[in-house]
Amino acid sequence: MRNDRQRLPGANGEGSRVSFPGVSFRTYEHPAALTALIAMKRARGFDLLLKKVHGAVGEPVVRMQHLTSAVRVGPRQFPRLHGLKEEAAGVLDLPETPELYVRSMGEVNAFAVGMDRPFLVLSSELVDVMNEDEIRFVLGHELGHVLSGHVLYQTVARIIASIGLASFPVAGLALEAVDAALKDWTRKSELSCDRAGLLVAQDLDVAVRALMKLVVGARAEEMNPAEFLQQAAEFELDATGWRNRVYKHLMPSGSHPILVLRASELDRWVRHGDYERILRSGEYEMRSEDGQATFRGGLRDHIREMKDKRDQKAADRALRGYAPPAQRGNDD
Ligand SMILES: [Zn+2]
């Protein structure tokens, strides 16, 4: 569908950006993430686990855990960040703009969290090393999670990762399969929201540079996005080979290959023309039609849109088996 985009004035008096009124999360949902979401929702005990964690922890505890050492961004505190967040929320036409906080985490990191009322947290280390365009990508990524309704699931995954699945017993059910499905979806949902980040940043180089800074932090200024994508392409080709298996077992965190693969997947989305079609022609899915796109119908549409199914499968295989970024902290 062709939609009427507008140009929004840039935050802090800079440039302007194309906005996507009424855009649906289906516009940027990665097919591998959709497949993983369906598997997760169908896993026996998923709803029970969700209710159990929600009931045991709840929104106030989550807010206390994350916000007691954080500073809230607003017109009078971090006003430039506030402007960037408002701009990003405008580009994705979010019905409600979540709160944004900054706190020191000892690493370049960002995440969206919350059970009923999602909010965003950027690490002060991220704010120190990223320029405003890169922060636009990060905010777009996190707001993508919010618009997609990911945050409750991510928060549950985060709680389980920190206090263990055994804390939430459900009588008569082994929840390991649910946990595995949740982890698989968590990893793959990043692929969708990197696309949302790109729709906000509107520059692939900026998006790749932001992913690089999540990998190496402060020294990323010396890195080159084209070289990083070349590295990603090599990894993609080798994703199912013996070298990948060695990496998988030797890498303690798994975050670095994940970020390399994420850059590669984003590059592929651009190369296949989907990004240009959305940005330049305004052809995107509308949230007003979300209700008509049934789960199965949505899946069929996505599969039809997959331009190269073999690449999708390679990415899927490569992503399978890595530790979720949440375990290390690079949540993004
Ligand atoms: Zn994310």
TrEMBL record:
Record has Membrane as a keyword: yes
Transmembrane segments: none
Cofactor: Zn(2+)
Pfam families registered for this protein in UniProt: Peptidase_M48
Family matches, as PANTHER family: PROTEASE HTPX, SLL1280 PROTEIN
Family under the similarity heading: Belongs to the peptidase M48 family.
Protein name: Zn-dependent protease
